[in-house]
Amino acid sequence: MAAKRLQRLDISDELKERLARQGLTTCAVLQDVLAKSPLELMKLSGRSGLTVHDLVHRCCLSQAVKPVTALHLLKSRERGGTFFATSLPDLDKVLHGGIPTATMTEIAGPAGCGKTQFSMTLSVLATLPVEDGGLGGGVVYIDTEGAFSAKRLLEIAQTRLPQQFQDDSSLKELASQVHIVSVQSCKNLMNRLQSIEEDLIQKKIKLMVLDSVASLVRKEYSNVQGGMMRRTDFLASEAALLKYIAETFSIPVIVTNQITTRYGQRAPVSSPHTPDDGDGSVEVDGEGSYLTAALGNTWSHSVNTRLILQYLAGDRRQILVAKSPVAPFTCFDFIITKKGVEQDVQGQGHYKGTDPGKQAIQGRAGLSVGSTQW
Question: Cis ω on the peptide bond leading into residue 212 (within 30° of 0)?
């Protein structure tokens, strides 16, 4: 779980300021307050043992995960507002309403397949009022690759929703609601995520996008000693922060990921309709090499929903629902136009609701699910 900031605790402002001067700003277990012994905290804060004991107790309570009953989750779902519609009808249908809020959704795929276009389309939709299918709030768009285009964002809005964005004032309003954060290193990204809560509250953020999650870690940890272990630790901390943000503020967190090639035979699965690890692998050749989402199994298990984008013939592409707690393993065709991402109603391979394994892959050669070839 991510660390709660001391500013949100019910302690005196004087104590908060004194701890901040000592570099203690969060309740983190591995650093800051909960990483210190009572004696160290007494020395740093200049307070008595009783005050320090109370501080540690409040930090522990803030970090403890509050239990939620199944009944509470059921009532929350019945009240609505727990899904964010993507505007792709078949995808929203199979996901029971769209991308679930309070969770982390990954959009993975090869370069140029539409991950950023999908993310910008969702950013436009999120700013719409709730009654129009949006989330009625702002967007934080964390750009690690310099791929975000404000001009393209406005083009999607103007061509997709001409009634809502028909003049300069409405477009300026949209642009002011999408907050771009450019980061160029893993350290800067982690620092930004740890300090982003205040912005989420003040700017009424309803959607967070991280585009992309793989670029920085691949760049910084690929050619260093112990890089794989350090990368795994960083990704675990990053995933905890992102999921904490999603759950605490009940917003969808969208992350984009890259594709990598793996070699060797995959383990067989018990059911031919379900991937063994939810990675949505695509076989490259007959010798056991396959494409899968980057960053490995540790990251894969941190993601709640995984959508894989793939190329088809011509300008058509495909969204593969590779991992979801509510949706079957299936896929849909889509295209990219001036309106952003749109469903390709002429395409094949749409889920029909009878045999999710067979019908989802209809007309799509070369898809490997475990060791089973359709």
Answer: yes
Distance between CA 282 and CA 133 in Å, rounded? 33
The distance from CA 247 to its chain's CA centroid, rounded to whole angstroms, is 12
Largest Cα span, the chain: 72
How many C-beta atoms surround the C-beta of residue 356 within 10 A?
Answer: 18
Given the DSSP bridges, would you call strands 305-311 and 104-108 parallel, antiparallel or unpaired?
Answer: parallel
335 beta partners: 342
Residue 270: which region, alpha, beta or left (left: phi > 0; alpha: psi -120 to 50)?
A: alpha
Q: Confirm if 124 and 161 have CB atoms less than 8 A apart.
A: yes
Tokens 């003049």 sit on residue: 167
Q: pLDDT tens, 227-286?
A: 888 898 999 989 999 998 998 899 999 999 998 877 655 544 433 333 444 444 544 444
**Structure confidence by residue, pLDDT tens digits, 80-97:** 558 999 999 999 999 999
**283: part of which helix (H) or strand (E)?**
strand 282-283
Q: Alpha helices, DSSP H only, in 204-274?
A: 215-221, 227-249
What is the H or E stretch that residue 340 is in?
strand 340-343
Confidence of residue 289 (pLDDT cuts 50, 70, 90): low
